[in-house]
Amino acid sequence: MDFADFADRVAAIEAEPADLEVTSLVADLFVDAGADLPVVARLLLGRVVPAWDSTTLDVGPSLCHEALARAAGPNVTADDVADRLADAGEIGAVAESLDLDGQQGLAAFGAADPEPLTVSAVDSRLRDLAAADGAGSHDHKVEVLFGLFNRADSLSARYLARLVLSEMRIGVGEGIVRDAIAEAFDVPVAAVERALQVENDCGAVAVRARDEGVAGLDAAELVVGRPVSAMLAQAGTAVDALDAWESVAVETKFDGARVQVHHDPAGDTRVFSRNLEDVTDALPEIVEFVAGIDVPVILDGEALAVDDAGDPLPFQEVLRRFRRKHDVARMREEVTVEFRAFDCLHVDGTDLLDAPLLDRRERLADVLSDGLSPLAVVDDAEAIADHEAAALDAGHEGIMLKNPDSTYTPGKRGQNWLKRKPDVETLDLVVTGAEWGEGRRANHLGTFLLSARVGNGEFATIGKVATGITDERLAELSDRLEPLIREQEGTEVDIEPRVVFEVGYEEIQASPTYGSGYALRFPRFVAVREDKTPAEADSLERVERLVGERS
Ligand SMILES: Nc1ncnc2c1ncn2[C@@H]1O[C@H](COP(=O)(O)OP(=O)(O)OP(=O)(O)O)[C@@H](O)[C@H]1O
């Protein structure tokens, strides 16, 4: 499929306001995609590689501006592109407005490939770009993007630019892709959903649905070494749990970082973070800990930092490891990280996603004798309160209440896992802006503008945080956020939404000051959530719920 045809179809999808119609248009596109089906399915979600692969294109705005300017010809500079972006507000409109003239551009710049740009050419060039690393990678990336923009017509440029900056925003989310696969190939939505959870790649699942139908979808299996999304929890109380289930599995809620451990005694051990990033090198203790397991396993659990007495330390200690991977040996001497396993997804060729929690826990105990998170099955509120008090006394964050009969549903924030924490409230919010500091802090960004997620790549501002940040941490945050600056006006900057802050606050108030209609009172910085992407930040819906609960 030519990329220009794909871009036409995407423009029609973007212009359609009704979800059902969007699903049908996407389904039609899937039917027509032929051999390009897996790539088309991923591109619609703004992905080049499957969701289980955390490789990113790592293209920042300035790199993209440089490539666009080169493709636009000698009269346009990267600064011009940035200026146009300030006016237009989104990169797709800018790319489209540059009138990149496809094949004429080729002649003008002497590019080697006279073929029209196809979907598969874009895919392979962007994979090549994603693999570029180290010295010279900047220039290589500009070169690859220039080559693509140079062969693109205006509409193609619009979607290419959005794709490389992870801003597809065409109103197509995972739910629509799931429903469209079902509609296109006449298979049940539930079967598609299940295969997506297991395989974590909409491209591969679309092909299964088309080529093998329900049987193919049902045959999707976990692969040791390929991460799946983690099952998530909702906030809940003992009463919620006892109302919903006959008995309750109570576990300690460890204040660490979620890890999924894939161990193959005949091969490799890999550790993945909650956003599926490979963090194996940052956590050698965990690799060593599971080294003795003599069958292939996929384990779910928490990486917990402990002090010399074995007592838990705050989760920031573990997250620091994810960030500074090259200092691991030194950091390991300073802080010990231990593994607490609480679930088991696969043992020795058998997937356990559909097994009840207590059965999975039995299998877990078969393969691991140490490092298990304790679990008690109880049926009264008093026993739950006792467990909570004991967990808090021991310095843990709270307790988890789980339905003993529940299956493991990857990526779902369902009602089968409830988290119960004392009322220390924090929100995970996306940094979308900042202000330069004053005086001693003039070289650093000092105040950070925070936003809640409103859906499909959009964010609404809700407050500013400047409190709770040490000078050292401020320098670190500045280094981190400066490359993400999109625009500057006076001392205020607009920042690409990439980094998530955990922020404490006293109260949430209705307020016209911010786009969300709410403002945090007394916000204070707690940590950078290295393990969360903006898509996993707290939503405005959650904020509204919190406000509702309080009033
Ligand atoms: N025994 C346990 N069982 C399940 N999850 C646990 C357990 N102990 C600690 N956790 C952590 O609690 C998280 C569950 O809460 P949730 O799914 O809401 O994630 P979260 O948004 O990171 O929440 P939080 O910030 O409260 O940890 C898990 O992702 C995991 O990291």
Automatic annotation (TrEMBL):
PROSITE patterns with a match to the protein in the record? DNA_LIGASE_A1 (PS00697), DNA_LIGASE_A3 (PS50160)
Reactions catalysed: ATP + (deoxyribonucleotide)n-3'-hydroxyl + 5'-phospho-(deoxyribonucleotide)m = (deoxyribonucleotide)n+m + AMP + diphosphate
GO biological process terms, alphabetically, are: cell division; DNA biosynthetic process; DNA recombination; DNA repair; lagging strand elongation
What is the top-level taxon of the source organism? Answer: Archaea
Task: Name the protein family.
Answer: Belongs to the ATP-dependent DNA ligase family.
Origin organism is Haloplanus rubicundus
Cofactors demanded by this protein:
Mg(2+)
Transmembrane segment boundaries = none
Classification via Pfam families = DNA_ligase_A_C, DNA_ligase_A_M, DNA_ligase_A_N
CDD domains per record: Adenylation_DNA_ligase_Arch_LigB, OBF_DNA_ligase_Arch_LigB
Residues covered by the ATP-dependent DNA ligase family profile domain: 330-454
Residues reported to bind ATP: 251, 258, 274, 302, 342, 413, 419
Please give the SUPFAM superfamilies that the UniProt record associates with this protein.
ATP-dependent DNA ligase DNA-binding domain, DNA ligase/mRNA capping enzyme, catalytic domain, Nucleic acid-binding proteins
Q: Which residues carry out catalysis?
A: 253
GO molecular function annotations of the record: ATP binding; DNA binding; DNA ligase (ATP) activity; metal ion binding
What name is this protein filed under? DNA ligase
